[in-house]
Amino acid sequence: MSKSLFRTPLIEGRMAKSVTMPVFIKALTQGSRVIGLPSDFATRPDHLERAAKIVRRHWRNYRLHEAMPLEYYAYIVSPGSSYRFTPTGELIGRFYDHPTIAYVQTKNGSKFTFGD
């Protein structure tokens, strides 16, 4: 667990609306659905091709397909700016997404995110 919220750029697998698991369980799987990227990733000329390759690799290795299917991947280059990809790495288009913030807040107000 990390004491900081997720930073961009990142690629996040977004679950299908049919997933009705409790929020806590969804938060526990956040680490397996979020791919942190180097801070300069989005400035590289081939960043979309590289993001598509990462998406395809993640999709092949994602083991929660049945219980928590992914609808698409959001490659968030900065808060409020993203590209969406199908699970097979096809670019859907540009969107205005923010990273999902999955955390648990303790009684004393501390927040812990899930993942790395």
General description of the model:
This protein has 116 residues and is α+β, with helices and mostly antiparallel strands. A hairpin with a 5-residue loop joins strand 6 and strand 7. The radius of gyration is 14 Å and the shape is globular. Helices cover 22% and strands 29% of the residues. It has three helices and seven strands, in the order βααβαβββββ. The model has no long low-confidence stretch (mean pLDDT 85).
Task: Tell me briefly what this model is.
The protein is of the alpha+beta class. The chain has helices spanning 23-28, 30-33, 47-61, and strands spanning 10-15, 34-36, 70-78, 81-85, 91-95, 103-105, 111-113.
What's the number of extended β-strand segments? 7
How many structurally independent domains?
1
The low-confidence parts are none
Percent helix, as a range, is: 10-25%
**Taking Cα atoms only, what radius of gyration do you get, to the nearest Å?**
14 Å
Descriptive labels:
globular, two-stranded antiparallel ribbon, five-stranded antiparallel beta sheet, 116 residues, 29% strand, alpha+beta, 7 strands
Task: Chart the SSEs and their pairings.
Layout: E1 10-15, H1 23-28, H2 30-33, E2 34-36, H3 47-61, E3 70-78, E4 81-85, E5 91-95, E6 103-105, E7 111-113
Antiparallel strand pairs: 1-2, 1-3, 3-4, 4-5, 6-7
